[in-house]
Structures are given as C-alpha cells and as structure tokens.
Amino acid sequence: MKHDPGMDVSKAKLDCSLLREDSGGKRKAKSVANSRVGIDALLLWCRKQGVTPDILHVIMEGTGVYHEQSALALCDAGVTVSIVNPAQVSGASQKLCQGNCGAKQDRRD
Predict the structure, then answer these.
(1) Domain contains 1
(2) Tens digit of pLDDT at every position of the chain (109 positions)
(3) pTM
(4) ∠ CA 95-63-84 to the nearest 5 degrees?
(5) Element (H, E) at 82
(6) Fewest CB within 10 angstroms: 14, 60, 66, 92, which?
C-alpha cells in the first residue's frame, strides 16, 4: 500500500501531512527544516508512523528552487516524488475550500 503525504514547501521549512488509511482516516502533520537534516527527520518520523521510504509517494508543489533539494534528497532515500504545478494546486484548493483555505490548510492539519 502506497502512502501519499502532501508537502507544502517554503524556503525555510517543509510542512507535511500524512493520511494513514489504516488509522481510520486520521491525519498526522509534521514540520521540518527544508534541508537534508530536515528530510532525515521527516523520514525518521515516517518510519515511526510505520511508513518506509519504499511505500512513500510524496506530492509537493514546485516552488522555484525551494523544492529541489528536498525532492532530490527524498529520491536519494528511495521515495517516489511527484512535483505538481502550484497554480493547479491553488485552483483545486479554491474549488474545495471556496477560497477560504491558506497554505497550512492545503496540507490539511
């Protein structure tokens, strides 16, 4: 079973949300530094949730250059990474939330 955490990317940090299907639909959230150390902390946290890199599929916005380091580090760790167009994510968010969602709500805390 693949797990698809959402990731909101900024210069300083990565805000992540993980939906565990086997936990009754409960979401877990974690913020880490947008650095190699932060990615290592994120992967450790995922392992503590029972999710190993080989079953992760991280979906993140392409945000200039800010997503590149984390995407490469996740790929190096064996994680599948999809980079999506921020305009498409924003458009979907506005449809779902009728324009009342912020970035923090995009990742569904």
Answers:
(1) no
(2) 567 778 889 999 999 888 766 666 678 899 999 999 999 999 999 999 888 899 888 888 887 888 999 999 999 999 999 998 877 765 544 544 554 555 555 555 4
(3) 0.73
(4) 50
(5) strand 80-84
(6) 92
